[in-house]
Amino acid sequence: MSHTAYIAIGTNLGDRLRNYKTALEKISALASTRITRKSSYYESEPHGKARNWFLNGVVEVTTEMEADALLKELQKIEIALGRKREPVKSAKKVPAKAQTKEQKLAAAKITVSREMDLDILFFDHETIDTRNLKIPHPEVANRKFVLLPLAELAPAYIHPVSGSTVSSLLSGTTDKKKVMLFRAG
After folding, report:
1. CB-CB neighbours of 47 under 10 Å
2. What's the confidence (pLDDT) of residue 110?
3. Is 3-181 CATH 3.30.70.560?
């Protein structure tokens, strides 16, 4: 069965444009997966502990893979492009097993610099909540750098949990960080 997924792409280390284009090539090369649409490139002010501006965008893909298999393939691409997955350190040095749900969520929101970040934003109109995969992406409504390129591709897409369109999420976001079109040159 064919599925439609929206994948956010972000990079802020090294040659960002080359990293981004390489990610597109690797996504296109995935078995039974085809990029059907690509957003423009956007440059965005960093969040969290990241210092360098990000190059961001979104792609729409059609795939025969299930969401968990797609996630595993995207993680392989991230690693191939230099992503290092390190455990997030809690400010209070609380062991991960003893952290409250709020502490875990706060730790997950810390943004760090990375060569490549690939996130599944939406997968068909499904909601998935497992240890390794949350769809829709839990931060999609809070990130202008994701909503702007997503609105280019799917402004009328309805968030399966909130019931809001991508366009209305973008107009209502409280994210005040700068996001602008990126002009390669």
Report:
1. 17
2. 58
3. yes
